[in-house]
User: What shape does this take?
Amino acid sequence: MTPPKFSDWDLDRNISDAIGKLGWEEPTKIQHEAVPVGRKGIDVVGQARTGSGKTAAFGIPILEACEVKKTTQGLVLCPTRELAVQVAEELGTLQGNKGLSIETVYGGTDLEKQAKLLEEGVDLIVGTPGRVIDMSKRGHIDLASIAIFCLDEADRMLDMGFFPDILWIVERMVGRKQTLLFSATFPQEVLDAAEEFTSNAVHVMSEDLEVEVPEIDQFAIKIGRLNKMWALGRVVASMSESDQMLIFTNTKRMVDMLSERLDRQGVDSAALHGDMPQNKRERILDSFRKGSKKILVATDVAARGLDVDGITHVVNYDLPDETESYVHRIGRTGRMGRSGEAWSFVGSNEIGALDKISNTWGMKIPIVEAPELPEGKKEMARLKEDWDELSDNFGMVTIRLPIGNEEASKMSLANWIVGEARVPEVAIGEIEIGNDASMVEIHVKKASYVIDVLKSRKFNGKSLKPEIIN
Ligand code: ADP
Ligand code: MG
Assistant: This one.
């Protein structure tokens, strides 16, 4: 087989001249496979190790697609300022005399100056997500006009917590026609991002990438909202010194609240969600990665792509709304072949969702008791009577009274309770009387009160010890 040549492609004259000047003799493997596809306007998802020429692999199709018109048509996002500069320089060289104006947009530089340059009109922007967002908010970048978009070093971008920012940008590129996504490695999160940002993409993968199936022990604890903090305390207490925990909740507000509650309990934690500025997110991720923070509370979006080897415990404080998110979440632990634990706290209204998750993915998620409290450790919260958890679909809680059918009828028992506790009749539901005990349904709103009253009353001279039936 003869080696592929740049001249086979009939490239834009300026570009082929520039390549000639650079002295490049032939395309690298990733260029050979990705450039022809990219030039056709097809989405490309490309993987090749560092130093394999990915910049030109996406750069050539982008430079060909853009015209000199001082309207932003292309955007390349990079994880750092240094990389943005490097990519912009290489694109500048590769375009030769085509005359496109290529501008870098990254943080830490004079905003005014950058704004002025952008106002003059640019064809292609190479930037970091934070500043690109900033500039679009200020009206200096029109994301809607961008037709070709490239995410370079996608793995690092996601690892650095850029996912929410990238999502923000992508959502606003309403005129986007083509997406190129390049990465040196392809962990599951990058594949997911590729899935999300591209359509009918051609995948160009250079090496066979092994997918690690992590060793994760999964458990669920049946517990209502009221007692989730207690259960969390038990799982936290079971961790060893070197363990790290990632806790998921479904809302940003809950992330903040839970992290604050943990702090109040003297459990040091950090909160992470998409509303935080990028530099703050990076700082938090950094302290978690270094292990100086042991517990991180996050939303799905913020934790996307988070790759911290030290995570031993994942807690689903809330079950995710989508079954797929469960798999992403638990995949944060058990990295590098280490073992991990995933705990899900499910209230009675979440049991159905848990079944759906285990059925969809063919996983066993046994419902277990919360871990025992180790010697010398204290509870993080008191275990409370959770009436909502104890009640059925009609809001009724069942209690057991030691009154048999010799002593009362349904009617007399109901009347007696209504009279003693002074509750409306509708608060009493079904009553079943057996030989030596009765089951009485009481509405959840009144249950605690009725139980208290009955504890202090005697029925036919007999004291009642109302027991709640779960
Ligand atoms: P990656 O992004 O995959 O890490 P780069 O695009 O930065 O790699 O390329 C690495 C180096 O290889 C750069 O110095 C680039 O100029 C050079 N290079 C790229 N393509 C070729 C080629 N076809 N022939 C020779 N050198 C190349
Ligand atoms: Mg590169």
Summary: The pocket of adenosine-5'-diphosphate (ligand 1) is lined by residues 24, 27-28, 31, 48, 50-56 (CB under 6 Å). The first strand starts at residue 44 and ends at 47. The chain has three domains: 6-205, 217-361, 391-469.
